Amino acid sequence: MASGRLDGVALAVVILTPLAAFEAVLGMPLAVQYRQRVRRSAERVYEVLDAPAPVREPESPRQAPASPFPLVVRGLVARHPGQDRDALAGVDLTFEQGRRIAVVGPSGSGKTTLAQALLRFLDPDTGSYTLAGVDAYALDGDDVRRLVGLCAQDAHLFNSSVRENLLLARKDATEDALRDALGRARLLEWADGLPEGLDTLVGEHGAWLSGGQRQRLALARALLADFPVLVLDEPAEHLDLPTADALTADLLDATEGRTTLLITHRLAGLEAVDEVVVLDEGRVVQRGPYAELVSVPGPLRAMARREDEAGLLVAVR
């Protein structure tokens, strides 16, 4: 340094120190740029955290009954948080073992809300819901869902094999039980034709399956779980009409003799259920056997007429 020269170490320090200092603050402009976006995201997270719980679990849950029958709903009134209108307004239902009921109606009529109430995902404002005479709201929510199971329109499939997705329903299921569930869901022949059989991967959320195959696999999983009461919530939603009607027919065949609540906006195949309940704006506007309701003027007959007209339009195309 005395000769006006820097040795190698000092030169490296002089050159690298500004570079290191600049690197430390390099991300600050980007942080400022994303500040507003992160702030909005945080506000949404806090909204969720501050939202009231849709379900109140009992402090001392009662013992769940061995069987849920009869399952009885009386005068059920429910409203979603933040809404100014009741999603359900005085709904009555009774399930005996083996009884199948279809709930139909336009979008927003309260069909899915009814499923949420039965599964204890939503507490009603008024009304009663009992399982074998026991107040369902005095039971632990998980106990209720062991008695009343769901096969939803958006049932999740994991990025794993057919077998592992099925075993989520019953870990100790045998090979015969898996194949029986697939057979009842009309999926066994397809599964046997896969490259790795039941060990074939299905992709994230069933990405490597068709819409109908995803729903049938979800149905097979629900059948394997063997819920005493099975709720099928719009299982044929987002499918083309021929596929939707074929799936509904197979669902009804697979659930014959099982206590089932089928929530649907399609009427095809509903002659097979014991009762059809028509909802409109949360209220029951018509109920009874399908053949009886479709033969008289009323909401169901109007729905059937519109469905027939839509079918003709599809056929013409």
TrEMBL record:
Organism: Streptomyces griseoflavus Tu4000
GO CC terms in record: membrane
Protein name (Swiss-Prot/TrEMBL): ABC transporter ATP-binding protein
Chain ranges of the ABC transporter domain: 71-306
SUPFAM superfamilies reported for this sequence: P-loop containing nucleoside triphosphate hydrolases
Pfam family, one: ABC_tran
SMART domains: AAA
Keyword Glycoprotein applies: no
GO biological process: cell redox homeostasis; glutathione transmembrane transport
High-level lineage: Bacteria, Bacillati, Actinomycetota, Actinomycetes, Kitasatosporales
